[in-house]
Specification:
Layout (H helix, E strand, L loop, with lengths): L3 E4 L15 E10 L2 H8 L13 E3 L4 E7 L2 E8 L9 H11 L3 E4 L5 H10 L2 E4 L5 H6 L1 E8 L9 E16 L6 H20 L8
Parallel strand pairs: 1-2, 2-3, 3-6, 6-7
Antiparallel strand pairs: 2-9, 4-5, 7-9, 8-9
Helix pairs in contact: 1-2, 2-3
């Protein structure tokens, strides 16, 4: 199977053949964007200080090291593990609508707001494997800009240049299909059968 690599800026058409459960990679730019940034955009109607239309965001609060070169402050990512995406769920529909973001990366699944946002405006939600924060940092070639630094390191918008950032597991596709919700249905079908097999073997446990 060919390796699927999305290059920012991404069009809606680029997402048409991508389905839940697919493994993709991202090259170009991805911006760390968490709770406070979502609140500013949705609740306070503040525009982002950089254009992410056709771009990607990462639900993450990275650990950053400040360096200096040629008298200018520069920054390097030490570790960038994804944070729980569900924390952004109530904002994500409007966030997608207002910003035009195409790829959202985080940890765990999301629900109907994100499903509808992905379906209505053409976007994906993807899961980056948890526990791989250092590997993720190694896939960042450089930090090209930093905005809203007054929010502190975790909430700053770190604009990262990446090459084949991933693997990213597609959890919601541009048709609104949701891998986590689909799996819940399938696993619940098997639950009673599994319990019937397991419980007699552990009945001695009080």
């Amino acid at each position: 199977m060919n390796k699927k690599i999305l290059q920012t800026p991404i069009s809606r058409e680029d997402l048409e053949d991508i389905k839940i459960g697919d493994i993709i990679y991202l090259s170009g730019n991805i911006v760390t964007c968490r709770d406070v940034a979502h609140r500013r955009v949705v609740e306070k109607n503040m525009p982002l200080p950089l254009d992410i239309r056709g771009g990607a965001i990462l639900h993450a609060g990275p650990i950053i090291k400040k360096t200096s070169a040629d008298g200018e402050d520069r920054y390097e990512i030490v570790s960038v593990g994804p944070t729980t995406s569900m924390r952004m769920e109530k904002f994500e529909y409007e966030f997608i609508e207002k910003t035009g973001v195409r790829v959202i990366v985080g940890k765990g699944g999301m629900a109907s707001n994100t499903e509808n946002g992905c379906k209505d405006f053409g976007a994906l939600h993807c899961v980056f494997p948890a526990g791989c924060a250092v590997i993720a940092a190694m896939e960042v070639e450089e930090i090209q800009s930093a905005d809203w630094m007054e929010l502190g390191m975790p909430e700053t918008l770190w604009n990262c240049k990446v090459k084949e950032f991933g693997p990213l597991i597609v959890s919601i596709d541009a048709k609104g299909n949701n891998l986590f919700e689909k799996n819940k249905v399938e696993f619940n079908k098997k639950k009673d059968e599994a319990l019937a097999e397991i419980l007699p073997e552990v009945s001695f446990i009080k």
